[in-house]
Amino acid sequence: MLYQRSSQLFAEAEKVIPGGVNSPVRAFKSVGGTPIFVKKAIGAYLYDEDGNKLIDYINSWGPMILGHAYEPVVNAIIEKAKLGTSFGMPTEIETKIAELAVSMVPNIDKIRFVNSGTEACMSAIRLARGFTNREKIIKFKGCYHGHSDSFLIEAGSGAVTFGSPNSPGVTVGTAKDTLLANYNDLESVKQLFESNQNEIAALIIEPVAGNMGCVPPKKGFLEALRLLCTQHGTLLIFDEVMTGFRLARGGAQELLGIAADIVTFGKVIGGGLPVGAFAARQEIMDYLAPIGPVYQAGTLSGNPLAMAAGLTMLQAIESDLELYTRLEQKTAYLEAGMRKVLAENNVAHSINRVGSMISVFFDNKPVFDFESAGYGDNDTFKKFFHRLLKQGVYIAPSAYETWFITDALTYDDLDFTINAVNAVFQLER
Ligand code: KE4
Fold first, then answer.
1. Which CATH number fits domain 4-69+322-426: 3.40.1190.10, 2.70.98.40, 3.50.30.20, 3.90.1150.10?
2. Closest residue CA from atom 5 of ligand 1
3. What is the pLDDT of the chain when averaged over all its residues?
4. What is the distance in A from the centroid of ligand 1 to the CA of 241?
5. Of 3.30.70.360, 3.40.50.150, 3.40.640.10, 2.40.160.40, which CATH number belongs to 71-319?
6. Is 218 a catalytic residue?
7. Residue 239 is a catalytic residue
8. What span, in angstroms and rounded, lies between the C-alpha atoms of 97 and 313?
9. Can you give the pTM of this predicted structure?
10. Whose CA is closest to 382, among 403, 398, 400?
């Protein structure tokens, strides 16, 4: 595995793009080395600029749940592009994907499309503040909701990877309205409600966290949050940018049986093109301009190419009745295989998994929140990452990320991966 061409491309990129990347987590900062430049990706595989073939466990951080270059999506984009790429005017396909999303996801009547998960979460917070006429929000340490100012407070994903949870540039005025609770710690939430009576517009949470590694909600935790929000007139926002259409057709709301007030989406809903969305029952969504007072807008929102990709993706998911069973079985197989070889090699580890979201932590203690997610040995993770890469397996270049399983993975790919995990530690013997 040589990365000569990637290294050369990275050196060129660094001259004109800050850090050589358009999103920090791609930069390999927490694992060392220089990022891999991709030439193409088909199905479960990446082909880098040095000719290496890699089994992909990032899948563009979630969107490629059916595999890269999924033919129906590619064809839909090609056909749509021939009719023009953007109009800044309403098109029928926006209604089609909105109708389908509303039919698949529980507890929503209307949906507004934007261009990223960040925009979706940022807009959801503004909508909640406008609807409740309150200013404060509760978020959880280690949860990541994109890079808008209100959320860059003890955020997860790339923000924590860099050990700079509170980003410069976020004003004190903004930060004071973001209250921090601990994931899976109901007491920390109750205290915030008690000390900020009638001031909390929304509580936003990743119903299954994926930005501190995969961290599932403890039994009863989300149910208790639902009750607290109802009691206090606070809107419960499920950030399903990662879990939406990944954990079930109806996302985490369906899988876990909890009704959120607002739900945000990204990743899968765009089929690999830039799409985010936020949705809620009609009385909340009708607070949005142009019919309501809460302003939110976007030149490329509902872009026909992105809508064509997203609609085709959702249609494929909606019609494939066995998809989530296959994803569950494949990811459970991978989990069992990795547990076996890590144990055989006496590697201190824990694995968290929900459906096709899975993370390996290099510490024996259970991981249930941001603090415990940090117990893992990062030197072991760095070795794990690079030795897997050298064997042709590409996982997230950070311990604070989740692996995303694609249905394009075969059991041979999974066996290859399990053997590669074994080989990482066999070298120690
Ligand atoms: P985007 O703005 O990156 O489309 O979405 C932000 C976002 C919001 N909510 C959740 C739960 C998310 O996971 C994300 C984005 N996820 C990261 C990966 N952990 C995106 C990767 C990146 O930053 O490049």
1. 3.90.1150.10
2. 117
3. 95
4. 7
5. 3.40.640.10
6. no
7. yes
8. 10
9. 0.97
10. 398
